[in-house]
Protein 1
Amino acid sequence: MSSLAQRIWRRIGYHASLGFTNLLFSLKARALGHRLRLVAAHREAFVGRGLEIGGASRIFSASGAIPVYPIAHGIDNVTFSDRTRWEGRVEAGDTFVFDVGKPPGRQYIAEAGDLAAIPDETYDFVISSHMLEHSANPIAVLNEWKRVVRTGGALMLVLPHRDGSFDRFRPVTPLSHLIEDERGRTDESDTTHLGEILQLHDFARDPTSYSGRQFRAMIEENAKNRGAHHHVFDALSVARLLDYAGWEIVEMEAMRPFNICALARKTAPAAVPHNEAFLRGDAEYLRASPFSTDRAQLRAGR
């Protein structure tokens, strides 16, 4: 079989693995332009200047499910290296093109958890899609993002849901583990989860064309390429993570085929976030979730 035929066959297998309902949803979303309700309800959160970690991300574009780019006055960007497997070559400076109709933003080459070049409370909002799972120390990263956003500023966070992704055979990472990573100052050289990834990765859900050997080589060099998902999330675990990191959750929504979307804000230093409604097992966003792991929280009464 030719390499092109292999890629086509893998793509067919990937969509089949998502299930008929998710496939229909994906096709409908592309045709009609699915939008999260929280964007329309909180449009003002994205007016001003923002910082994106990772990206540029299609989900934030004018045709995406969370169209932040058309709203923002400007967006800067942080990428961990001057060459990544997602963006290719990256050049520091005023080079970040997030919307062809707007001036480029400033491109920083830096770790997501070490934004030393950016002063406190610089930005009106921070956005990030499918990046935090690649971080070995998510709480430390969220704390650094909170430092660079103004009081009252927003965080729009998108993470992969285990049920819809190639992580579906892996256990959800407990908050206690993430707290240990923070307290132990775990850095990006961490290899704790690499064995689990190699054992439980679902190639049928992986849209890339990696062979088993190619995937192993990538994971074993994760400190260089950052391809591994250190941690695995469902919707409630994301709420618990944001609450522990001191963000006040505004809204959450799970969205097929594999997204957990959370809008949060930075409170005043002395304020205590009130996230009780999002931490209950009977929370509305769990009831509305298309993912079985989230709905199982209701049955478990967690």
Note: Residues 165 and 287 are 20 Å apart (CA to CA).
Protein 2
Amino acid sequence: MKTKIVVITGAFGVLGNALVQALQFDGIQVIALDYSSTAPDTLQVLVDKGVYIRGGFDIADPAVACGVARDIVEHVGMPDALLNIAGGFAWETLSHGDVATWGRLFRINVETAVSACKAFLPYLRESSGGRIINIGAAAAVKAGAGMGPYAASKSGVMRFTESLAEELKADTSITVNAILPSILDTPANRSDMPDADYTRWVTPEDICATVRFLLRPEAGAINGALIPVTGRI
């Protein structure tokens, strides 16, 4: 791969954890960032193999994000790609829900991506083939009952992806794309939906495969795309 240093936000979650391991296996220098202060054991053991782990901060705070970006450049090097995995989910109807949920999901799904992109963009411009990959959601294309706050925030991620791709295509080689998963096969989702056929869901490895392709030089012509990865939902 042409990409050498990849920054991942939300790296301590199930999907982020899988991506860190997959990219590290490819020989890529991975920077694993997260709001949580506790990294999974599977990531801790990769520190000696070149994975840089940093947790316990809010990447949605622009000042914090800029400080983290400066530290990474100083201590690790110039990034070639940014994967915005940080985010969250809530199922809540308007009738019985809290309006504050809308703002909370906007912050953790949209503002995390916006602040991270703002902080790392000056350094990604120095890469000969920079990549920004955001995680949207297939559920944002057509929202169901109780999906309003989540779908609205992930729609924001999708529109942000398109806008930033247009902004950068004139004078940079950076591509900006979003992956739109359906239900991810995670322990939490299996617990929440015990009667579902999880063989039809999307695995973290499915997302990893798509990310790995988008990082490749051969994917340089893909820009501003919203890529559905939906299994058999």
Note: The chain has one domain: 5-229.
Protein 3
Amino acid sequence: MHFRKLVPLAVVLLLVCALPGCATGGACLDDSTPPERVRSIYIVKRGGHTGVAIPSADWPNRNWSLLAEFSGSDLLEFGWGDERFYQAEEETLWLGARAALWPTSSVIHVIGIRSPIAANVHAEDIVEVRISTEGLRRMAEAIEREFTERTPVATPVSLGAAPKPNHFFGARRKFFFPRMCNWWIATRLEEASCPIAPWSVVTAGQVMRRARAFESATEQ
């Protein structure tokens, strides 16, 4: 790609990164939601990447094969990214540029976590977000659909060499700017009725600020 084509792209990237998330304030559930229909999920930040961790016991589809594969885990964390960059031992500038500037194959990283999450996850930040059972159902169904069509969703194909409880699986989408890893997490939050505009999300910091705002609104 020519340099003069890269300049406008860089300007757009800087402008989008400066946005807080382009969504109105508010919680991810109505004030009238009864306590028995409220569930907790967790947004996890590691460097420039975010993931969403969901208690296995709350997963709506009890027949999903991934629950059995990670049967010793109390939570499942899901992240999404470029197939080569996400699994690379060393994340080079070239791999990062390739992932952002060209549509590339993607993978979903699933991590099995034991409770309590704060004591068993090595992360820079973890934010609890409360959503409704209906919001969780929509999020869970969407995550299941994200797995590759190369095999049935019930038995996704493992692509990574990482041992359990960390494993990579083929994903449907192509990875490219601005649809990158943090956009994917913002999209999951939007599916759970959280007031967020995924198209405006690029950085992990944007995701965490919105997640913290959702939780603050819930506590008011």
Note: The chain has a mean pLDDT of 81.
